[in-house]
Each structure stands twice: as C-alpha cells, then as structure tokens.
Design goal:
Low-confidence stretches of chain A: none
Number of helices of chain B: 15
Helix content of chain A: 25-40%
Oligomer: heterodimer
Distance between the termini of chain B: 52 Å
Largest sheet of chain B: none
CATH topology of one domain in chain A: Rossmann fold
Structural class of chain A: alpha/beta
Radius of gyration of chain A: 22 Å
CATH superfamily of one domain in chain A: NADH-ubiquinone oxidoreductase 51kDa subunit
Strand content of chain B: under 5%
Number of strands of chain A: 17
C-alpha cells in the first residue's frame, strides 16, 4: 500500500505536460531586478549603492530581522537604481536594478560539476553557511531555511522529510531536478540532517513521477539513512502537515508547529540549494522555473537567474499565445494570478502557468446542495460549507470555534464544489478577520 | 500583450456540477424505470413523463413568474424529483395523481423553503406521503396495468408486504402465507406488486453501483440502513419466525432499496458527516422495521426517511468531522 495523508484531498488532473523537457539554462538577460522581499518576513536592507560594481554571488542586501534573509546579486554588472518596483500582484516593493555586464562570479564559488561528498562542517557552520547563502524554502512559502534548521531548544527534531511530492498539477521543476541531480539533492539532505542532529531522512515522491522515483532510489543506495517513499497521487500531499502525516503518520496539532511531530520538512529544491551553498559556496541566485500550459506549443523547464522579468521568460519561451487568459505564478491550485507580467522572479518562483479562459473559468454560483463534497475534500477536516455560511454572516466567534484558522488555503473546497461556490474566497477573508481578532487578544 | 484575468486561487475546478450530478442520478434511475415500463407498459412511461414535466414546469413557473428569481430548472434537480415521484406511485395510478404530487413536491416541499438546497424534507417523499393519506385507495391499489410485450406475466393484488400484513391480521401465520410468498430470485430480480420503482432489486442495485462508481454518493447511508434492517428484523425473526418476516424478505421487498439508495441519500436532506450519516441510517432502518412489524401501514420507509430528515440539522450540529491534528500527538 502506497502511503498518503489520512484526511480529505482531491484528484485534479495532473497535466504534467512539461515533465519531459530537460532543464535549459535561460539565456543571459540585460537587466536584473532583484526584489528585497525574497523571503517570508522583513524585506532585506540593501548594502550596495547606485553605481557600485557587483559580481555574481556578491551580497547586495542583508537581513533586517530574525525572520529575514541575505540577498545576493544574480548577475555581474553595475547597480543602476534602488527603488520600489511592482511585484506580481502590483504591490510596490524595494528592488535593486542591476545592468548586466558580462558574467563574472565571486572567486570562492565552485562552478565545476564535481560532486563533493565529504561534509567537514559542524551543525553551526552548516546553519551559518545556509543563512549566508540566503536560502529560503523553495516549495512556495519562502520561509528562511536556516530558521527551520535551528528548531527551538525545547523541541527535538527526529527526522528530515524532503518534499518531492510536487502535488500541484502542471509543475515539473522538482521532477526535473530529481531526475537530473538526485545525488546532490540527497547530499543536501545529509547536510541538513547533520545540522538538525537527526539520523533518519525520507524523500516523499508522488507515484506520477516514476522517473524521479527511479533516479532518486538509485542514488539513495549510497545513502542508507535516507529512504525514498512513494506516495499516492493526491492533492495537497505537498502541504507540510499532509506530507508529515503521509510519511510518518503523525499529525501536527492544531495551532502547533510541524516540529512538534519531530519532523522537519524541506523541499527538494531547497535541498539542492543547501548542497550548493555548503559544498560549492554558491548562494541562491537562480532556480528552476517550469513554463507550461496547454496553450503553449513548447513546454520548458528553465534555470533562471533571480530578478528576470517574467515577461522576458515568456518572450523567450515563445511568446504568450492569443488565447492565454490567465498567467499564474505557481500551480493552478495555490498559485497566484500574475497581475503584472513585468514583475521579476524571486527565489521561490517555481512555475509560470498559462491557462485559457475555458480552463480557468469559474462556474456561476448556484445554491449549495449540501453534498458535503467540500467537507470530504478538506485535508484539515474542516467544513467549508459551514465556514462559508458563517463567514458571509460575519459570525467571528462561531468561525473561530469551527477552527477557520486551521485552513491551509489549498483550494480543495472551491475546486470540488459542484455549485461553483467560491468557498475559499470567503474562508480566506474570514480567516484573516478571525486571526486578526485572535492576535489582538492579550497573551496568556 | 493580452489582458489577463486576476483572481484568487484555485484557478481550476472539478468538472463536476450540480447538473452533472443530477444527470448521473437520472442515469442511475434508468434501469428501475425500464423494468417498470417493461412490466407495466406505457402507462408507467406516461406517468413518468407527466410527473417530470409537471415538476420541471412548476419550478420554472414559480421561479420565473412568482418569485422572479433566475430560473434554475436546467440543474435537473426538478427532473430527478419528478422521476422519483413517479417511481413512488403505483404503476397504474391516474396521471392527475402525478400532477398533484408535483404540486406538493415542488410547490410545497421545495420552493416554499427557498428552492434547491434549502428544503428540510425530501420533496418526492413529502408528495408520496401526502398522496398516501389523501388518496389511500389509489395509492394502494396494485391492479395489473397490462404487461408490455408479454415479457412479464401479468400480476395483480397486494404488494408482498401488504399481503403479509393482511394475512397476519386475519390470523394466519407466516408459514401458511409463504405459499403465496416469493422465492428469492423473485425478490431479487422482479417482484410483482408495489410502486413503480420497487419492482426489481437488481435494477436498483445497478443504479446504486453506478452512483458509487461515479462518486455521486457514498455507500454509508444505504449500507447502514440495510444493515440495520437486516440485523433488527433478524433478531425479531429468530425470536418468532411465525410472526415476523425474515430479514432477506425485508431487504428486498417494498420500497427499502429505492428509499435507501435514492431518497435517503438526497444530499439536501441527509447529514454532512459520516458520523451523522450512520446515525441517520440506523434511525431509518429502525423506524422502517418497527412500522412494518407493528404499524398500521405495511410499509414504513417513507415515514422513516421523513422523520429522520427532521434530525439532520441537529446531526450536522453535533457530528463534526475528525479535525486534522485531533488524534494523538
């Protein structure tokens, strides 16, 4: 029996049409726009000035709080501007604009393809290297990785779970790196296990990626401490809580941190970045982005420097077809609609998806028929139909009692609703309101 | 560049719609309808047509001219109600019975509560019970309407459950009545007598299988009802086989299969959680057996479902799904 999580879930068509497209290095760009909000938490503070020459991998911004991170220059050239620029949603965020001149890298970065297997560093050294390389979770949440590698003193990590589920339809960047660079991913895992002081590691991969499972299993023969776990195809298996439940059968208590189950989850892309940072001194300056959509004639998986405008990526990928009606950063279930295609990529961007009007059309809303499909689909065991009713009535106390704050916004409820009710839209707003009320209460 | 749509996630939706679900229910009802048309001839087909047209037309008229709200008859829910209503009538019932049934089902039981999704009671069942108490003779006469194509022998007389009840009332014991009773294959494939939809267990089970495969319904409610009926009637039967009919007979005769597969599973009037659905099913099973054994009507499925319909809001309030992280840490 293949493993999976125990509550809810849906089966959207996986549409992994870009899975056979090998990773291509994206051509050099003329200007990079590096956002200071590359991570969850406080935006970084620039440490370069207009006119400064920078090299690839050079620090250009420093963390401005505990949950924050370093930002490195993805290109070599001259700092042209430091000013607010619109991100994908159109919000103004400080950016460092760099005019590209050549491709000169910092000298200490090892750019050879040799795999370095020996890990001579202590846990503290690893965490410092990860922090200095500006690594964030590449699964989407962009939580600073070094924070996750140093759990609170009273919590004990017992195992590391690498997230290779890629449960979102269409996305294939993790699939590609698992096929093309399996050993480096596993070494990244070994490095993080050393930092956490754990001896058990897992890689969770969904069954719809047989090539990735084969290549990771083959590579894992040399790393017996890491087990490749084949999981059933089921969305949202890549959710941190769902993955922990699927792999080690423990559920994160409501309101608690994942570490309370003893598990630390890291995306396989993050693991590769950790390997490169620790063994090759390479900071996080590029990532693999899937450019896909049924309306695109050719599918791509590009290795793109951070700060590349999305419009540029689309242009190189062959242009935006006439019938593309929606651009999405990420997958169709949890990705964000791109309002501003000129926005530059950030570290956690994993895909640009193009959907036609027909593919993304919302059904007109009709009466709830109380089929309870939303409740069956909710991976958190909530009742979206009820939260929808309470939310529309503004009943905050009842919403809290029904644990609206547990919602992970995976979209299973809206996806599954036969009456076309925008359940998640209502729940998301209600959740924000309730959490604001909860935060405003004096702490016990 | 093109203009792009910007809206919150999810950006894709399941192809399943209210309409596709209702269409599946109609498909699932087809075997039962075919059997009853083959058995009773064109009169049943006419009854089904009248009932469906009346239900759909009535919903259309009420929405368009009375309530002045968007017309939603294309969701096919009124058509499902129409089919279920027809299948709950005797095959030879006059056509106007279906029209009155439609007025009660759609006009009273559905639209007064606010239309689809808002009604407390199953509309087709409300209509059936209304007709049963208003036109008891028509609703309980099972005269042969003439077999179509001669495939099935003509039949007449009471339903199996009615015959048993009548016989017991007249002082007969079940062993004396078994001569008139049905063989198992009769019970399973075709039993003469009963409402249009109750004739063939196998046709109803085919529909059940289809609904399960299409994931339109879960098996919880029907299975709980059937298990409860089987166990409870089994206990009575073991205690006194002369007085109480056997569990297999109880499962395959009367409206139990039709009711538990198609009426008790009505989304709107059944509980939302598995826990609630189990309690709901046990309740229906218990009430059915008690009405059949001790009530004055031979059949109790309709009453059982309607009574349990009342408990649904309460079951929804107290039976919560298992929350993530609620199990041991």
């Amino acid at each position: 029996m293949k493993k999976t999580f125990r509550i809810g879930g849906v089966h959207p068509h996986d549409n992994k049409i870009s899975a056979e497209a090998a990773i291509e290095v994206f051509p050099a760009i003329e200007t990079a726009y590096v956002s200071m909000a590359q991570h969850l938490g406080a935006p970084a503070t620039p440490v370069v000035a207009v006119g400064d020459k920078v090299l690839v991998g050079q620090v250009i911004a420093e963390p401005s709080g505990f949950i924050s991170g370093y930002v490195h220059s993805p290109v070599s050239g001259t700092v042209k501007k430091i000013e607010p620029r619109a991100d994908i949603a159109g919000n103004m965020v400080p950016h460092i604009e760099i005019t590209v001149e050549g491709d000169e890298w910092m000298e200490n970065i090892d750019r050879t393809p040799d795999i370095i297997r020996e890990i001579p560093y202590t846990a503290e050294e690893i965490i410092a290297k990860v922090k200095n390389a500006g690594i964030v979770g590449l699964g989407g949440a962009s939580f600073p990785t070094h924070v996750k590698l140093a759990p609170p003193k009273d919590k004990k990590a017992e195992c590391l779970i690498l997230n290779g589920t890629e449960c979102e339809p269409y996305l294939t960047s993790d699939d590609r790196i698992m096929r093309e660079r399996p050993e480096e991913i596993l070494l990244g895992g070994v490095i993080m296990m050393k930092a956490l002081g754990v001896t058990r590691g897992y890689v969770g991969i969904e069954e719809n990626k047989p090539a990735a499972i084969a290549s990771m299993t083959e590579a894992a023969k040399a790393y017996p401490q890491i087990e490749v776990v084949t999981l059933k195809k089921r969305y949202p298996q890549g959710g941190e809580k769902q993955l922990i439940d699927a792999v080690i059968r423990r559920q994160v208590p409501s309101g608690g941190l994942p570490i309370e189950t003893g598990a630390v989850v890291q995306n396989v892309g993050t693991s590769l970045a950790v390997y490169e940072a620790v063994q090759k001194n390479k900071p996080l300056i590029d990532n693999v982005i899937t450019v896909t959509g049924k309306c695109l004639p050719v599918q791509h998986n590009y290795k793109v420097r951070i700060g590349t405008p999305m419009s540029k990526i689309l242009e190189v990928a062959g242009g935006v077809p006439e019938k593309a009606a929606k651009l999405i950063s990420g997958g169709p279930m949890m990705g964000r609609a791109i309002a501003n295609p000129d926005a530059a990529t950030v570290k956690a961007n994993g895909a640009i998806l193009l959907l036609t009007e027909e593919e993304t059309r919302r059904r007109p809303e009709s009466n709830c028929i109380r089929c309870s499909k939303c409740a069956s689909a909710c991976p958190m065991g909530l009742e979206p139909w009820l939260l929808n009713k309470l939310g529309r009535a503004g009943l905050h106390a009842e919403l809290e009692q029904e644990r609206v704050y547990d919602c992970i916004e995976c979209g299973c409820c809206s996806f599954t609703c036969p009456a076309g009710i925008p359940l998640l839209d209502v729940i998301r707003i209600s959740k924000a309101e309730v959490m604001k009320i909860m935060r405003s209460r004096p702490k016990k | 560049m093109n203009k792009f749509i910007v809206s919150p996630s999810p950006h894709t939706h399941s192809p399943e719609s209210t309409q596709s679900i209702m269409r599946d229910v109609l498909i699932a009802l087809t075997p039962a309808m075919l059997v009853s048309i083959l058995a009773s001839g064109w009169s049943v087909l006419a009854l089904i047509c009248v009932s469906v047209v009346a239900c759909v037309l009535l919903e259309f008229l009420i929405q368009k001219y009375w309530l002045k709200v968007p017309v939603t008859v294309t969701d096919l829910s009124a058509a499902v109600t129409g089919c279920l209503l027809a299948l709950n009538l005797p095959p030879n019932a006059p056509w106007w019975i279906a029209v009155i049934g439609a007025i009660v089902a759609i006009g009273v039981a559905k639209m007064t509560f606010g239309g689809l999704g808002q009604n407390i009671f199953n509309p087709a069942l409300v209509a059936r019970v209304f007709l049963l108490v208003s036109f008891p003779v028509i609703m309980t006469s099972w005269d042969d309407a003439g077999s179509m194509f001669g495939i099935v022998d003509a039949f007449s007389g009471a339903t199996p459950l009615g015959a048993v009840k009548e016989g017991l009332k007249n002082g007969a014991t079940l062993s004396q009545l078994t001569a008139d009773n049905l063989t198992f294959s009769q019970q399973f494939f075709f039993n003469a007598g009963g409402s249009a939809g109750e004739l063939s267990a196998v046709a109803l089970l085919l529909g059940f299988l289809y609904l399960l495969c299409r994931r339109v319904i879960k098996a919880t409610i029907p299975v709980t009802i059937l298990l409860t009926v089987f166990v409870v009637s089994g206990i009575f039967w073991l205690a006194n086989p002369e007085r109480f009919t056997n569990p297999v007979f109880n499962i395959f005769t009367g409206g139990l299969l039709l009711g538990s597969i198609f009426m008790a599973t009505d989304y709107v009037t059944s509980p939302m959680t598995t826990k609630g659905q189990i309690i709901f099913g046990i309740g229906i099973g218990l009430i059915t057996v008690f009405v059949r054994y001790f009530g004055s009507y031979p059949e109790g499925v309709s009453f059982a479902i309607l009574i349990m319909n009342c408990t649904v809001p309460l079951l929804n309030k107290y039976c919560k799904p298992r929350r993530f992280g609620e199990v041991k840490k």
